[in-house]
Peroxidase
Amino acid sequence: MAVRVLPLPPVLVLPLLLALVASVHGYGGYGDGKLRVGFYKDSCPDAEAIVREIVAKAVHKDPTANAPLLRLHFHDCFVRGCEGSVLINSTKGNTAEKDAKPNHTLDAFDVIDDIKEALEKRCPGTVSCADILAIAARDAVSLATKVVAKGEWSKDGNLYEVETGRRDGSVSSAKEAVKNLPDSFDGIRKLIKRFASKNLSLKDLTVLSGAHAIGKSHCPSIAKRLRNFTENRDSDPTLDRAYADRLRRRCWRPKDKTTELEMVPGSSETFDTAYYGLVTKRRGLFHSDEALLRNDVTKGLVYRYRDSPETTFLRDFGVSMVNMGRVGVLTGSQGEIRKKCAFVN
Ligand code: HEM
Ligand SMILES: *[C@@H]1O[C@H](CO)[C@@H](O)[C@H](O)[C@H]1NC(C)=O
Ligand SMILES: *[C@@H]1O[C@H](CO)[C@@H](O)[C@H](O)[C@H]1NC(C)=O
Ligand SMILES: *[C@@H]1O[C@H](CO)[C@@H](O)[C@H](O)[C@H]1NC(C)=O
Ligand SMILES: *[C@@H]1O[C@H](CO)[C@@H](O)[C@H](O)[C@H]1NC(C)=O
C-alpha cells in the first residue's frame, strides 16, 4: 500500500532535504554534534557547579593553581584538538603528550582527577575529560579576574560561558605534542602559522597570549634567550637589557629546573592586562611574547589591550577561549567518555 504523501511545494523540499542531510551528519561535528552552552543541563545538571567547587577549593588552598589549569586546556586543544589527550598516561609502548618535552612542568592533573572522581560519583560515564578541562580553565581564569570574582561581571561569577559536549579521544603522542605546541622561541610568522592551523586568527593569538598574565615559568624555558640566542652566544636583543640581567642572576645555574619565574612580577596570580604592558616594555618572558610586536595587526592589538579599559580585553579573551575550545573536537558518537582521565576505557 502506498503511503500518501502530501505534495510539497518545491520551496519547502530543499530546506527539508538540507535539514535531513544535516541531521544525518549530526555526529560529525555539525547539527546534533555541535558544542553548546549547557550541554549537561539535563544529563548532569550539577556538572559545572561541581567543577567550580573543586577548582575554587584548589585555588583557595594554593592561589598559583589557577594558571596550570588554564594552560592544560591550551595544551589539550593544540594537540589533536580538545579531546583530553593531554591527560592520558604513557604506556609501555607509547610516550604520551604529558611526557613530551614541551610539557615543561604541566601541573594540576590531580585537580582534574578529583573533579573526574566527583563527577563519576554523581553522573557516571557522562562528563568528558575534555569538557572538564574546558570548564576548569574557564573557572580558574574567572577566579583570578578581580571584577569577575567580585561578582561585578556576571551573575554566575563566570568570565564567559563555556561550550560543552566534547568527547574524549584515545590517542596521546609525545611526538605530536612537540610538533604542534608553540615554542617559547617561536617568531611571529611561526606563531601565526601554528594558530592558523587550528583555525585561530591573529587576534586569537594576541588575546590568548594574554594568558601569560598569570602563572610562572622556569629557567629552561628562557635559558637560550638569556645566554645563547645568536651564533655569538649573545642574549636575545629583543629582551630589555636590565630585565635580562635580572633574569640571568636568577637563572645562574645551568639547567636549573626549580627556580620559579613569575610571568608578571608581583601580579602573576591576577588575570589582567599587565602582560601587555610588559610586552611593550620588552619584558615579556618569552621570545614568543615579544614577537607579537613584529606584526602590525598583533602589535596594534597589544597596544589596544594595554591602553583600553580592561573590559575590552576580558570580553575578547572569552571569545577567543571559546574559539580555542572548538579546535578539533570530537562530538556526538565520536570518541568516548573516559572513566578515568589518565586512561582510555
Ligand atoms: C603563543 C604561544 C605560547 C607559547 C610559546 C607558550 C609558552 C609557554 C611556556 C614556555 C611556559 C612556561 C613553562 C615553564 O617554563 O614552566 C608557559 C606557561 C603558561 N602558559 Fe603559555 N604559551 C603560549 C600560549 C599560551 C596560551 C594560548 C595559553 C592559554 C590560553 C597559555 C597559558 C599559559 C599559562 C597559564 C602558563 C603558566 C603555567 C603555570 O604557572 O604553571 N599559554 N607558556
Ligand atoms: C599517571 O601519570 C601521572 C603523572 O604523569 C602520575 O602522577 C600518575 O601516578 C599516573 N597514574 C598511574 C595510575 O600510573
Ligand atoms: C614531562 O616530561 C618529562 C620528560 O621529558 C617527565 O620526566 C616529566 O615527568 C613530565 N611531566 C609530567 C607532569 O608528566
Ligand atoms: C647554544 O646553542 C647551540 C645551537 O642551538 C647549541 O648547539 C649549544 O649546545 C648551546 N650552548 C649552550 C651552552 O646551551
Ligand atoms: C578548521 O575549520 C575547518 C572548516 O570549518 C574544519 O574543517 C577543520 O576541521 C577545522 N580545523 C580544526 C583543527 O579544528
Observations:
- The pocket of 2-acetamido-2-deoxy-beta-D-glucopyranose (ligand 2) is lined by residues 89, 98, 109, 342 (CB under 6 Å).
- The chain has 15 helices and four strands.
